[in-house]
Amino acid sequence: MKFAVVSIFPEMIESFLSWGVVGRARTNKILDIEVYQLRDYTHDAHRTTDDYVYGGGGGMVMKPAPVYECIDDYASRNERFKVVFPSPQGKIFDSETAKELSRQENLVFLCGRYEGIDERIMDRVDYELSIGSFVVSGGEIPALLMIDAISRFVPGVVGNEQSVIQDSFYNGLLDHANWTRPEVYRGLAVPKVYVNGHHKEIEKARKRDSIIRTILKNPKLFLEKEIGLEEKTAIIEIIKELTQNAG
Ligand code: SAH
Is the pLDDT reported for residue 247 higher than 80? Predict the structure, then answer.
């Protein structure tokens, strides 16, 4: 899968996307990421990308021309791509959006700064997406965050595919608790079933833990979940145990 990011701070993007899971996927050529300096698409000595907002009130807005020219240049080398504009006014980006976008071949992210980008850019935008109901100073962190989350759904990016499937939200539940050595630390012990349990018992304990945590930590997510047979069985067991303890 290919990503391109357009920003006046390309170094921010480049350094972040060179590490960890995403960095490795780039080295392994599973992900191709290009970073564009928006100032390269200006024609004045100061390489100006912003101007005063029409109507007064102060503040600067990013000019439409450099952004349009950068997209045109990209289009001359890339046949099919979709444009993402991170914006607090967009649809909230979530796990479903990440999964859906991971099916695209080529995504271009436009990073706004100041008051944002001239509204005429919306003609070229396919997805306007928000990372939450708050405002940050630029589209770089939102773009990085989305690229990271989308990449995790691209086959081969996360070495252990199983870990993506177990991650929170993938199947409408939160991840179960995870433990590592030592078995006892500061008097706190890892539950026995995870240490000596058999595969089947561990699976059951994990499913049960996922269900309990989702109900307690994110009940809204649980209400939206379609419950399958495996989950129903786990819920029945949880309730049986609760009633036995109460009795
Ligand atoms: N005046 C704008 C905010 C501009 S913030 C408004 O109130 O709608 C500058 C840039 O940061 C935006 O153009 C956008 O690219 C990015 N940004 C800020 N908050 C964001 C959020 N919650 N989600 C995604 N992008 C965001």
Answer: no
